[in-house]
Queue: 2 jobs
Job 1
Amino acid sequence: MDKSRPGRPNDIAESGRHFKPYPSNGVCTRLGDKWTVQVLWRLSVAPGRRLRFSALKSEIDGITQRMLTLALRNLERDGLVVRHYFPEVPPRVEYELAEMGAGILSALEGLNFWIQDNLPRIEESRRAYDDAGP
Amino acid sequence: MDKSRPGRPNDIAESGRHFKPYPSNGVCTRLGDKWTVQVLWRLSVAPGRRLRFSALKSEIDGITQRMLTLALRNLERDGLVVRHYFPEVPPRVEYELAEMGAGILSALEGLNFWIQDNLPRIEESRRAYDDAGP
DNA sequence: CCGCATCCTTCTTGATACTG
DNA sequence: CAGTATCAAGAAGGATGCGG
């Protein structure tokens, strides 16, 4: 299990066309990460459910090239997104929301509504807890 | 913004009764972490929606005292769980699932079903992707 | 344009010992 | 029993440079 290496960052996560996927591969973990749901959402509202890499990058505020690439690779690997590569010059790559990708977004609607309805109360609870403070 | 300290771990996250909450405080981030949903789930199926700290700890396989404490503190702060402290000897503490805690579990049902239905296909997609590559 | 490599920082989790 | 404190390690995210 390679317990040998000391505590530096891993910096695994890719190499060549077939990258090494994230160590944490649970579905919920992926949905909880910083960018994945945003990527799925942007694709779902795009015409033809497709967007170029650069379009995604400019629509998602604050994402870096590296993190967008990683998110897309993991989504592709899971079958939630399809990658279309056009070997032109300069190259063009489009990402398309797959059936399963649309499905998981629907499955998230209930949670989405709940959060919209309850976030104010959660934030109030946090304020109260913090004010009671140390 | 205190950029001074070099790249060692933070080890923030608590101190005294009022701990310092996780920096990432989005609801989805919390749900994506390793233990929170498990804790909510165990409480929801317990009689009276209540369990002692030690009961939770023994029911959730692999969780450490530290991580259980942190998960419960964050849930309490968000108003999803209520902490009942009994100053006996030895002390007893019970955690109760609050209304909002039950609500978020219901909101997660759709996602839960989706994952059950689609996990086999996701795993197959992962195998195919990994096999195709180097 | 798209994306990989490298380096670095921050966040999250774990192991262990100790206490009211 | 139910925590706190401390140390350590692993994983996620960001900045930047290079290349087909």
Job 2
Amino acid sequence: MPLGYRTIAGELRERITTGQYAPGGRLPSEDALAAEFKVSRQTVNKALLALRTEGLIRVERGIGTTVRELPMLTSRRIGRQRAASRESGSARGAFQAELAELGYETRSEVQVTKERASDRIMQIFGLDDVPEGRSRKADPQRQDTGHMAVVRARKMFAGEVPVQLATGYYPADIADGTPIEDEDTGTGGTYSRLADLGHAPAFFSERVTLRVASDDEVSFLRLDAEQRVYEVERVARDDRGRAVEVNLIVMPAHQWELVYEWAAE
Amino acid sequence: MPLGYRTIAGELRERITTGQYAPGGRLPSEDALAAEFKVSRQTVNKALLALRTEGLIRVERGIGTTVRELPMLTSRRIGRQRAASRESGSARGAFQAELAELGYETRSEVQVTKERASDRIMQIFGLDDVPEGRSRKADPQRQDTGHMAVVRARKMFAGEVPVQLATGYYPADIADGTPIEDEDTGTGGTYSRLADLGHAPAFFSERVTLRVASDDEVSFLRLDAEQRVYEVERVARDDRGRAVEVNLIVMPAHQWELVYEWAAE
DNA sequence: CAGTGGTCTAGACCACCAC
DNA sequence: TGGTGGTCTAGACCACTGC
């Protein structure tokens, strides 16, 4: 009887974790594996599909299959993050400190735009008191700043490898015409600028979900189409409870662990 | 040219989200879908595989394919959780409050045992100061309570549907012979009992990772073999920094979102 | 051009379930 | 026994890469 694709996936997983197929190295071609295991190519392909979704391997058409290199990265969402922010300001500080410990040079690219906010973002910014089921068709003529947001889209790299996307949204009536629209937000970063404007972030929430990567994310993060990403929706509110920032952070799930730390009471 | 499996998966996803295939209802058989889309059964099967991994459908051999029913559940890891704990005690209180809001009756089953702790748990309990790379082969003769743990394995249900597994580990030298070994830990739950013993939890950390479900989890949580679960490793420490509880919480990733809330400073 | 993976087909056998 | 999904095969065509 022929081997099943699960068995083959297990065997290949074993070879990867034991280093028989080294990180960054190549796997034999599907034809070669099919011959070795005496199964059809389709069966090998299905086994590799499982490993791709797990993020163990990376497949390039016309080239071949390689073992992924980056180790597990830790994202400290509370605790360490605050300490780092004090030093170098903003989430970027935390991100850099985190990866520097692992010996990676980090780099990030920021692009600032002004856009009409999505329904979800709008709801967080100002329509929290509106029932969920409300029709959103009303008032299509409103294009005022109340529905616009300054958007800071940041791409982050460890070495040359893209590892994270973070998109910050700021209400236009707060951020418009301020340094928040600059690519470099200066000492203390965006949170310090929000404080300067009288909207110092005081309360935070993060909502962690899992989803399949979008096409853009697949392309930028060099993922497989079936791969999963964490989406962290971080909301910062000032001391009056007004949402002053929504940050959508996207990370390949196979590569990151999220750590939260806090004290009782 | 025939339709690709991605296209078909997208079409079926659409039919599910629009309610054309109602929650709890049946999908046409693979043969029927193959005929409808004019593709081979294998192609339909591959499309369904994607939806299974996403948790949209549930497949039973010999029976058919049904649309999953439970909505997204929210697990409040900080904030609400503390309030709930004060009322009814322990993590169970938070869990029940959470689902009661959604109109579900909850039930949980607890099984208490005493076991030799895994390396990972041991490390958290007492070997935190030992370098990660240290050989663990030393001292194989030690079977004292320092390496044993009281284990509280809890299975949680929403209605009749199993939704979560939580396994709490407590150092034997603290928990041995105490009410922590009882199935019902009384008012305030396990945390209150730890406080009674002079080890009130003061610091918490949670480490969120994603992995494929184990066979046991697949069977208990009624998952598909390829499906993902969150594993939350929660560590509670007393005011001296000693780890007094490790809790491993497993949740189907398609069904839960994790929410963390905290204040600045 | 040859080599790689992406994907589809048509047919087949099996395990499991309800009847 | 007939219907369901699980899975494998052998062959095929395509797109993409690197030479």
